[in-house]
Structures are given as C-alpha cells and as structure tokens.
Amino acid sequence: MDNLVLTADDINTKQPSIINIYLMESKSELLRLFRTPGFYLPTLLFPMMFYLFFGVIFSMNPATMPTYLLATYSAFGVIGPALFSFGVGIAVERGQGWFDIKEASPMPASAYIISRISVTIVFSLVVIALLFALGAIFGGVRLYTTQWLLLAGVLIIGSLPFCAIGLALGLYCKSNSAPAVVNLIYLPMGFLSGLWMPINFFPQLMQDAANLLPAYHFAQLSLKVIDMDVGANIWIHLAVMLAYFAVFMTLAAKAYYKKDKQ
Amino acid sequence: MGIPTCNTIAAIENVAKTYGDFVALDNINLNLNLNRGEILSILGPNGAGKTTLINLMLGRLSFANGSINVFGLKPGSLALKRLCGAMLQVADLPETLTVKEHIHLFQSYYGAPMSYQKVIEYAGLSEIESKLTKGLSGGQKQRVLFALAICGNPKLLFLDEPTVGMDVEARHALWKAIQDLKAQGTSIILTTHYLEEADFLSDRIVMLNQGRIIQEGSPEQIKAQVNTQKIRFTAEVDIAVLATLNSVKRATQDKHFFELQSSNASATLQHLFNKTKTVEQLTVTSAGLEEAFLQLNREQNNSVQQ
Amino acid sequence: MKAKIFIIFILLFVFFWWLPEPEEQVDNKKSDVFQTLNASFIISNANIYDGFEMHKSSSILVENNRVIKIAPSIDNPSDYPVYNAAGKALVPGLIDAHTHVWGGALSQALNFGVTTELDMFTSPESAKPHLISRTRIDNTQQADLFSATILATAPGGHGTEYGMEIPVLSSVDQVADFVNNRVNDGADYIKAVYNAKQAKRQHFPSISLEILEALAKESSRQNKMLVVHVDNLISAKHAIAAGASGIIHSFMDTVADDELIELMKQAEAFIIPTFAVQASISGHSRGKDLAEVSAMKAFMSPMQTQQLNVNFANFGIPQSAFRNSQRTVLKLHKAGIVVLAGSDAPNPGTTHGVSLHDELAWLVESGLTPEQALHAATGAVSRVFPVGSRGTLQPGALASMVLIGGDPLSNIADSLNIEAIWKNGVYHQRKVYDLDQRFEPPLAAGEISRFEESDELTSVGAGISESTDQLAGGKSAVTKQLAMRDGQNRYLKVTGQVNKGFSYPWSGITFVPGKSFSEGANLSELAYLVFDAKGEAHAQPLSVLLFQTGSFTPAVHQLKISREWKTYKIPLAEFEEIDIRQVVNISIVATTPFGDFEFGLDNLKFEK
C-alpha cells in the first residue's frame, strides 16, 4: 500500500469556488428562514402592526407622523432580523453542537458571516417593502423615488452594525439565554432611540442619553433622507455606527477564533 | 509549496491539555504513521481523552505546550480542513434542511467532492434523502453526519464515536461503509469505546486512559501483551479447588461451565487433569481485546493509585 | 438561480417605481419661477386673449408693469425673465361687473383672478380708501374697485332692508342733491332700483318713473352713467326709455320682447344678467358644489365657503323662471346687445372671485361661446364702464392678467385652472388657507371689561395694553388710565398723539382675546364687538383693527365717534380679510388726523 504522503497536487487540485460556497450557504440560510414561520412571521408583523397602530391609526399628526414613523419603524424592523438571525440563530447552533461541525468543516468563516448578512438583507428588503407599501397606501406617505431608494439603501447598510452586535451576542450567549438577551437589548434600545415615537417627545436627559445608542443614530440617518432628523451632523451618525460595527466585529472575531469554546 | 512529505500523518509531541484541575491529556507523544486505507482506533473509557485528542488534531482546542501537526499542516487551517472530514458528536442537526440540501452544502466546501450518489450509498441514506432532518431517528442522524464527513472525499476521516446510539444492524451497516471507504484508500482515525468495533475495524489501536497512552499497536499486538488464556469446561469439581490450580488467576462458574483465566494454559491443564477425570467440553482460547482492555486499565489504575 | 435573482430585481425595480411621489408642489415650485416675473418680463408661446381677440401661440412683453405688445415672437434685448407658457392661456384680469364690496372682498376676488370689481352698492366710507388706492400702481394685493356707492331707491325700497341708513328719494327735487352727493362720494356711476307700477310683482316700494327719468338726466349732466336694477320686462323697458345706460339683472317674469330689443339697440344699452345670484334665488345650489371643488377650496377663506353654502330665503321662484332669464339673455345677445358678466356676490350662494367663474359658466350654458363669455368679463366691460384699459391686454394697459392651464376658450371650466395671477404687472402669490387647521374652542359672548377696577385686566383673554406704531418704528404715543364717567362709574381714558414716522401711524389700545399673545382666539360664534365710546373731537375717527395669528396685516373697520357717550356695535363679519377663528389681538386706535387725541371706552364686550 502507498504511504499516505501528500503531494503538492493533493493540496492544489481543485480549490472550491468561494462564490459558490457563499451562494450555497446563503441558499441554505434562506431555506431555513422560509421554513421557520415562527421566526419570520413575528419579525415581519410586529413592525407592521406597530406602524399601523402608532403611525396611521392613532397618529397624532396625520400630515407628518406616518412619514416620520415609516423611517423609524423601518429601522426597527430591520434591526430585528439583524439581531435575531445572528444573535439567536448562532447561539442555538452553538448549543446544538452544529456550530462545531461547521467549524471542523472546511467552510470559510467568511461564508458563515456573508450568507447571514445576505439573508438579513433579503429579509430586511421584505420588511422594508411591506412597511413602505403600508405607508404609501394607508399612511399617505409621499416621497420622491430617489428618497424611497435612498431610505431603503440607508436602512440596509445601516443594519450592518446590528449584524455585528447580533454576531457577538450569538457567539457569547448561551443558546437558551440568547432570545432573552437579544429582546432585552432590542426592545428598550428601539424605544429609547426614538424608533417607536419621535425622540423629541422624551425628556432632554433621555434625548441626550440616546446619543449613545446605535439605533438612535441609525434612525437619525434614515430620518435625514426624508428631512425629519434633529439636524445633527451626518458624520457623527456615521462615525458612531462605524464604531459600533468595528467594536462588535472585533469582539465577534475574537470569540469565533477563540478555541476551547464551552 | 513547502509541504513536507512524510509518512507520519500526525505528529503530536509533548502535548498536554488541562481543563482547570482536570488533566485531559498528559504529555502525549504520538506519531501516527498511517498508510492509505488504514484505520487507527483511539480506544479508551469515557473521559480518557479520546475526543480531546481528535479536537486537538482538528484545531478546535488550544494546547499549552508541545506541537501538533497533521500532514505537516497546522491544525485548524483551511488547507488541512479541506483534506479531512470529521464526524463529531453532535446533540442535534439544524432541522430546516433536507438530507440532500445538507450534503450539497457540505460538498460545496470541497474542491473535488465525492459524487452525491456515492455519498448516499456509503451512508445508506437513499430512502431518506429528501426528508427534513427534523424527523430523523438517532441512528439516521448519525448516518447523515457520516455522509457530511465523507462527502468531500477526504484523505483523512475523523470519526468520533460514530456508532453511538445505533442499533446493531445500523452499526454493522456503518462498519461496512467504513470498510468500503478504507478499501477506497481513505485513512481513518476513529474513537470508540466499543472494543468490538475497534477490534473489527482497526489496523492500529492507541489505548488511552486518564489522559495517557497506555498501549499502542495492532489489535493482535495488544492482545498478545496480555498473556492470559481462557479455559472453559464442565466437570464435577468444586470451584474452590479450581482456584488453587497452577497459574490460575481467576475461576468463575457459569451454570454448568467453569471458566479459568490462566497465565500458563498447559501448566493449568496438567494440574486440572490431575485433580479430576470428569472434564468435558473443554475449550482453550486466547484473550479477547476486552480482556486485554480491562486488564490494562486495571494495571493502569493500580499504578496511578500507588 | 440567476433567472430568479433577475426577476427579484425586476420586481424591486417595479416596486420602487410604484411607490408614490409627492404631488408636484405646483404652488411652491412654480411660484419660484413666477416670483421672478415682476414688472418687466416676457411670457412666450401662450394662447393670449387680449379681451377682444385671440393670439395663438404668442408672446407678451410686459415692461414697467405695463403691457407693451403681443406678437408671435418678441426679442429680449434687455434680458427680461421669460416664461414659456406653451399650451397655456393668458387672459386679462377678469372684471366682475356686479358686486357689493366690503371687508375682504377685493383680496378674495384677486385670489381668483378677478382684478377689478364693479360695486353696485356699498357705504361710501368703506369704498373710499379703495377708490383712491386703485389709482396706485402698487395696489397689487387686491382687485381695483369701481363703485356706485349708495344706490338710489325709494323710502323702504330695495336697498333699505340691510339696516344701513341711506338717503332715499321720494321726490324729483331730491335727485340733483342725491346725484351730487354720489359724485362727491367718488361714485363712478349711479345705480338705481326701479320697479314699474305696472309690474305684477310689487315686492318693495319703488321710486317713480319721474324720479328715474330725473336721475337719468341728472347723471348724464354729471357725466355719470345710470344703471338700473330691474326684475321684470316692463321695468326694463321703462329704465331704458328713461335713459339708463344698462339694466342690472335679467328678468325672470317673461322673455324679452322685440320692443325691448329695439329700445336697447337704439340706446346702445347693456345688460348684466347676474345668473349666479339668480340661479341661487331660483333654487340651483351650484354654490354648494363650488365650495366642494378641491382645486378652489384651498384658495377660499372659511367665510367664502360659508357664503357659498348659504341658501336664499325661499322666494318661491321656480327654476323655469330662471330659464326665462337665460332665454332673454340669449335673445338680447343674438340681437347684438352687450352682455356683461356680473355675479352679485356676496349674496347668498355666491362669493367674490369664485362666483364670477360660475357666471362665465352660466353664460356659456345660456348659449354664449366661451370666448363671448370671457369677453363679457373683460373687453366688453372696458368698453362700457369707465374702467380705462382694465379687462384688456392692450398696449399701455397695466398688466393684470391670469395664466390658465388649459384652454378656457374652448372649455370655460378651465378658467378656474389658474396657474398664476399678475396684478398691475406684479405676480400675486395666491393665498392658501389651511383647511385642516385646528382652532381654539369658540369664545362665548360676554363682557370683556367694564373698566371699573382695572385698565389692564379683562374677563376673557390676556388683557389690555397700550399700543402705538412705535412697534414698527413710528413716533406716536399713548397713555391709558381709568377715569370717572359720572358720579359712580369709571371708564378707560385713552390720550395720545398720532405722529408722522410710520407709513400707517396708529396709537391706542390693544386687547388680546386669546390666552396669550401668541395664541389666537376663535371668535367664529360671535357676531359683534360692542363698546361705549366718546371722542374729544366731533366725529372723531377711530379704527378697529383685528390681527390674525402670524400676520401683520390687520383687517380694519373705521368708525366715527361722537362727543357724547354712545354704544357702537361692530359686526365681526366686517373683518373678512382675516380668519376670525384665530384673532391674536383687537386694537382700537386713532390713526388720523395727526396730532393730539383723546377718546374714552367703556363696557367692552362680545355679543352674539
């Protein structure tokens, strides 16, 4: 019998296509999403329900409120899948030991992240499309096509820091505590950042405190598109969101490449 | 490429692994020389360090000192992972994909995966390939994991307790698959605490206990190290007498049959025939791996206690 | 896979393309363009109707507020701003030949492109300032007014029922003085109300035929034309025969006969049918429909909407009678008699501006072509009444004109599709009313102050304070204090000086009816502001000014107070220019003459 001696050929022959891996991984994530109505239904319906409720039916000012809240509830609706798909999804896979299988397999780490980000984007697009349609039909929201597009773009790009936060949470939290932890962050942060009602309804102290929250800056960026933000410098919002992205990506990378998990 | 060509697939030098006070592996030195199509079993009781050793080679655990390389590559590197397949002990599979989708996904990780049909045949999944993994039995799930481990046509396959939770029939089917793979030239590192499994499949065995290698060699070599033979018969004799026979280490009674463990079968038999003429249905066999295992573990534990 | 992704992208594209955009903010965006078109500018490629004829796809040059010329193309050496009005129509500012003007009528009219209003009865006091301001080129915020001032009627005749004390005619001797007084009031023509003794319907007492003839003679002597209100055929004949220049209102008792046609032809007399008000009298409720037309709603004051929604008290006139009136007008028109457009706004069911457009529609429905109808509100009026070149775009005319989207010469309804209005060559930004605005709950009637305890505190609102033009940089001064009215009661004594310094000097006191100086009070359910007043001088002029939130232009009511204490009742309906539902302050001030003044106020209150 031959000795199990590696030749250069063994290693070089046929590298897998990284693009194909991304596609396959994304497809699997997407299938997973489709087959989990318990996840996607509430994640879709909650922002829609809230928006209809506060933005349309009980709107305090029918002229501006539906437009304002369309931006903030869209932000809210986009943060949800980012946090949950990463945070809870990864924590659960880790709990199952499935993450170990993935880790031992030759799946590149980037495929894991990129597939989830692309699925989050697809999901965000659905959330955005539904909310936009609600706003347009029931809220009487009228924006220029460039604004609609820009708003959708800002919402999608702006979800990245929340993907990073979700990723870090997913890698640090235990599977059974992850949903609670994510909800504990998601809901209060949404409220305190003015995603549920305009920030200027809050006492000044709370408004100042909101500056620390990434969701506040996300909302302000979205509101800037429709000219309804509080008027702070756009670079401040971008810088804070970038900082959150960098910090949580670093934390996540640390957790991912850390061995001896559990 | 700078890839060292060597016969040693894995070189483990002075590697220790502790979890707090618990010593999982204690200065292991192990050079695994394995040929194409050979199977190495890592054998040991629960907690002996088998899984730790596999995870070290997969690069999933850090270690304090020493060095490990597999194929001369760093554990955990993508280049190495692409040469390997691993079947680990997993609590559950993601339930939202079908068997087929799982396999296709894992195939995409490799440059030259095994054909889908072959994977299905090896793992015996042809009847459940389009089922969601949600409703599968434990044994079926193990087979799916096996399929995922082999679907990349690995040069080296790690199987961590592959037949846990399987019924006898499924276990034999898996053994068959492992043997087929071996015949294809796949080298396999297997951990198990089923002695029968190691005995049946292995070309070489490494026995671990309490983080140490206590024996290493082919199954025959290991068994030979334990020079005990088993003498079985019926006779009209008192068991107390039997225990006093020459070279007898242990005497037991099983209904009509007596069993003697002897370090020198011929001396014992001479003595036995001197004592009684009623011996019938006599068989003498060499010790199985199980006896060897139990004995070796006993010795190990004694030495630790001392 | 690729196909699926492609389809998804297409769907996304379609979705974002479908998402609704804001409606073109016509007013803001376009007005930005129009704002530059002031005094000197060119409008090119418009279908220009100059009051007499159509100039298809032509350009008009406006220079120093006046029309210079209309031509197929115009050079632009001075680099004036040019507006390309391709596909749009430009018509002269419209003239409403029959209205009654007070309050905010003239600005309401302008808001709908009516740049001249012929008044057929109002008080000389309220007409006078407007009769003066129409001569000014900067009179760009309201329509120009021409007026008959007080009409000539019999004691108890039509015109006396409105509660305003007016001189009446019971004998021929009074005629010369009457006409003379009207001329002194600044009347541009004389209006009489006449009903022949022979008429079947005797609704009101009427002046006699002799008085009517005397009026015609005397008017002619004073170079004024006489127009006569009639409501039946026989009266119309009398009026023309007596020497009237024209008759007001077509009549509904019967259709005009050849005799009348012959009379009118010989006299070259005209008729102002006033279909808008006749339709309202005979039970057509077009006013209500007009009030609901969304393109117009936003440009109407709440008062105007209300006016359109009011019904005439039931006169029992059937719609068939209105058909008589329509037939008469068509018959006269076909015989070559001049027909002029007049609405008789603001009678119930009509309002300034809007109802003239309705009158145009009625003219067309009665058989005139759209062009003839437009002529009746433009060039035709300029030929009959002494309004100069108003109603035309002839060279030299002040450029009062309306840009209309569409083609009113083939579809008269397009006349309401107003895109821009110029008054005297200046672009007029149409006033837009916020229909969804919320107001404070209406104030109830009651005392404001009896001026017994305090010269500042009031029972409603945020009190009374001194107010002068010093706020605007003027130099007038004022002090107020409580003083004894008789043995027991006190009143508010206001003394001060009106001094030169600000263009519109004032000095007096101001009352804040709302909770604070910034919150407007809702006076919509109140009818009168009532107070006792006395002046130091005889017939001392006093102005009551109402300011609306966010506006610095008050609505003004002027009165003259006597030296004795007397109670004055100011109808709040007078203050139409402002929204009565958001009044920030009510000022009672002296404005003229310059110098020292003193007046007293007491028992200030609101009444229903």
UniProtKB/TrEMBL annotation, chain C:
Pfam families tied to this protein = Amidohydro_1
Molecular function, one GO term: hydrolase activity, acting on carbon-nitrogen (but not peptide) bonds
Q: Is the keyword Hydrolase assigned to this protein?
A: yes
Q: Which UniProt keywords apply?
A: Hydrolase
Question: Do you know which InterPro entries this protein is assigned to?
Answer: Amidohydro-rel, Galactose-bd-like_sf, Metal-dep_hydrolase_composite, Metal_Hydrolase, Metallo-dep_Hydrolase
Asked whether the UniProt record includes Transferase among its keywords, one would answer: no
Where in this chain does the record put each Amidohydrolase-related domain?
90-425
Q: What is this protein called?
A: Amidohydrolase family protein
Q: Identify the species of origin.
A: Aliikangiella marina
